[in-house]
Amino acid sequence: MWRDVVLVAERDLRIELRSRVATNQVAPFALLVLILFAFALDPDTGVLRTAAPGLYWVVVLFSGVLAVARSGSLDDTDGIRDALRLSGLPPAALFLGKALALAAQLLALELVLIGAVAVLYDAPLAGFPLLVATCLAATVAVAATGVLYSALVAGLRVRDTLLPLLLLPVLAPVLIGATKAFEAAFGAEHIGGWDWCGLVVLFAVVYLAAGHRVYGALMEG
Q1: Which of 16, 50, 51, 185 has an alpha carbon 20 to 30 Å from 115's alpha carbon atom?
Q2: What's the rounded Cα separation, in Å, for the pair 189 and 183?
Q3: Cβ neighbour number for residue 26 with a 10 Å cutoff
Q4: C-alpha distances in Å from residue 203, one per residue of 20, 65, 79
């Protein structure tokens, strides 16, 4: 199955590299929102530094919705979804492959945004291991949930507006946990960061398990 996972992920990433949607649209949107937050809260750099963890993950989630919508749209043209369903590939491999490709794109975006937060918000990037662990766990949670809900709204005329309404409330616990973990990593809080990271890991595992079990049924629907 893992060979099929890699094949599906390679397909999505190859299409993304050719279209450059993430590079030309998603990343500039995320950076623009961070800059607008900086202008809105300037000149109080203390407020910016305090709010940096929350603002960072809000931008990641909003940008993630765009990336999820793009990932789902790859299978909505030329009967690709039907072809995948009839290809004999295990539904779990399709789910994990698409989640892996989406997670790779989100991690690249988060790396860029970390640098932007450090420059624009003067955020002290301490606690590097906690930062990395939180980013990995939250990215897996966002990618797994995004692929799952993208399949749920596939084929609907209102999927572009319905997807954020369904996705963002489900990811609220991830937003809270990742923000609290980043506050600890940035030095705003000195305890409890790894506990919050563990909560994010828990949600990531739950969302992965749910997608692994029900993705096939959603594709058939």
Answers
A1: 16
A2: 6
A3: 23
A4: 30, 18, 33
pLDDT confidence of residue 41: 77
pLDDT at 117 over 60: yes
To 5 degrees, how large is the angle CA 149–CA 169–CA 188?
125
Q: What is the mean pLDDT of residues 152-173?
A: 86
E strand spans, 49-148: none
Give residue 100's identity as a one-letter amino acid code: L
Structure tokens at 118: 């450090």
Please say if the pLDDT value at position 188 is more than 60.
no
Enclosing H/E stretch for 64: helix 45-73
Q: How far is CA 160 from the centre of its chain?
A: 17
| Residue 126 burial (C-beta neighbours within 10 Å; 0-12, 13-18, 19+) | exposed
Q: What is the pLDDT of residues 17-56, one digit of tens each?
A: 888 877 788 889 999 999 888 888 766 677 888 888 999 9
| Owning domain of residue 46 | 2-220
Number of compact structural domains in the chain:
1
DSSP reduced 3-state for 124? coil
User: pTM, whole model, 2 decimals?
Assistant: 0.90
